[in-house]
Amino acid sequence: MENERKISSKFIYFFGSFGGILFGYDIGVMTGALPFLQTDWNLQDSAGVIGWITSGVMFGAIFGGALAGQLSDRLGRRKMILISAIIFAVGSILCGMAPDGGTVFLVVSRIFLGLAVGAASALVPAYMSELSPAHLRGRLSGLNQTMIVSGMLISYVVDFLLKDLPDTWAWRVMLAMAAIPAVILFLGVLRLPESPRFLINQGKESEALRVLGYIRKPEEVAHELELIRETACLESKVSKDTSLSTLFDGKYRYLVIAGVGVAAFQQFQGANAIFYYIPLIVETATGSAASSALMWPIVQGIILVLGSLIFLAIADKFNRRTLLTVGGTVMGLSFLLPAILNSLLNNPNPMMIVVFLSIYVAFYSFTWAPLTWVIVGEIFPLVIRGRASGVASSFNWIGSFTVGLLFPIMTASMPQEMVFAIFGIICILGVFFVRTRVPETKGRTLEDIETNSIPTQKAYNGDYGKVINRVSE
């Protein structure tokens, strides 16, 4: 008990969000590893194989997110994060040990690794939102995104530093080194407490009180404990009947559609096409070898980290929906303008598309990238939070898997500008979805969101517009 009391809130928030480092590293590491893997296994003309190797992690993450969401409601957020760290370390080492030409082995290993990636994407936002005070929840949940992009930047730098190794060793070392942050996460989470909301839901009020004691001011502990207790008491009456079908009951359907929709749009907007394939994008645009373009991922990584820091500064100063609207609009234009200019200009600069992609990354980094997981972490009622977060994470990874798999196939059959124009249209559709379907959650306690943002079945049947007005900004 005494050791647990000595844990500082900064330590809790840091390692609570450290899971982002893991899948941030794995999102980024294939960017640099892929050119060497292509050369080593002669995959330059195998767009489908490249797509599967790249997107295997996202395929596994689809199932990892859903399973972790359900299991975390039974076992707790903390225990599931520990299990995820173990899977991540083993999966990373297996990827580095793939036999020569063993595409099936590598794909299967990356799918296994994806189970941990998907679990982390579901668990970290839920854990951080349940420990964060309402007025800081956006900023603290945004730490998850800072960790993700920091992991990506680290992987880009590692890729660049290892680029002079022989091809057969370079990509193996790059992939296997992901085990290092997994071990760090496991050791750090061993000292973390469980979420107080989960503890209350399990009837462990004394433990919840102790956890609240060192993440809240003394005068706030009793009030928040009472709020959590009341919510848990009300929802425990229906928790035994909760299933996947419960997520789409009239009582919860509106919030589930909002959270899952935002998570899906974030990936179908095409961000991972840039993060996975930027060296190949530069190669297509300029004709230079992809393995010589590894500085561009570092540039993108720096933009992502700076954007995440900007978000931490503005997270609780602007409405969630406002930031998503501005970001999505600029992102859409950044994808659409290259196609338009390419059709109007003769011999445009081939680097034009890379410049516009950098603008996309800049706005994505402090809007849709962090806010998606802030909203997923705070919009779902406690009784369905773990399961709904898992579904949202799975839809997010379905989008990521689809983009990762199809992007090399699409660019092999049509100009890059047209592929990105399609993503641009999806960005604009995402803005429309936010303006019409997503409630504002900034500065509201999780209990207040649950109490005042769930429309009744009657509202669904005939008064949807009033519901939108009641829960919007």
Task: Count the beta strands.
Answer: 0
What CATH calls the topology is Growth Hormone, Chain: A
SSE arrangement, N to C: HHHHHHHHHHHHHHHHHHHHHHH
Instruction: Count helical runs.
Output: 23
Notable traits:
473 residues; mainly alpha; Growth Hormone, Chain: A; disordered C terminus
Could you outline the blueprint of secondary structure elements for this entry?
Layout: H1 2-5, H2 9-16, H3 19-41, H4 47-75, H5 77-96, H6 103-131, H7 137-161, H8 167-176, H9 179-189, H10 196-201, H11 205-213, H12 218-239, H13 253-268, H14 271-286, H15 295-314, H16 320-344, H17 352-366, H18 368-378, H19 382-413, H20 416-437, H21 446-452, H22 457-462, H23 464-471
Helix pairs in contact: 3-6, 3-7, 3-8, 3-14, 4-5, 4-6, 4-19, 5-6, 5-8, 5-9, 6-7, 6-18, 6-19, 7-15, 7-18, 11-12, 13-18, 13-19, 13-20, 14-17, 14-19, 15-17, 16-17, 16-20, 17-18
Structural overview:
By secondary structure, the chain is mostly helical. The protein has one domain (7-471): Growth Hormone, Chain: A (Up-down Bundle), CATH 1.20.1250.20. It has 23 helices and no strands. It has helices at 2-5, 9-16, 19-41, 47-75, 77-96, 103-131, 137-161, 167-176, 179-189, 196-201, 205-213, 218-239, 253-268, 271-286, 295-314, 320-344, 352-366, 368-378, 382-413, 416-437, 446-452, 457-462, 464-471. Helix 4 runs antiparallel to helix 19 and helix 16 (320-344) runs antiparallel to helix 17 (352-366). It is globular. The two termini are 43 Å apart. Mean pLDDT is 82; it is low at 1-5 and 455-473.
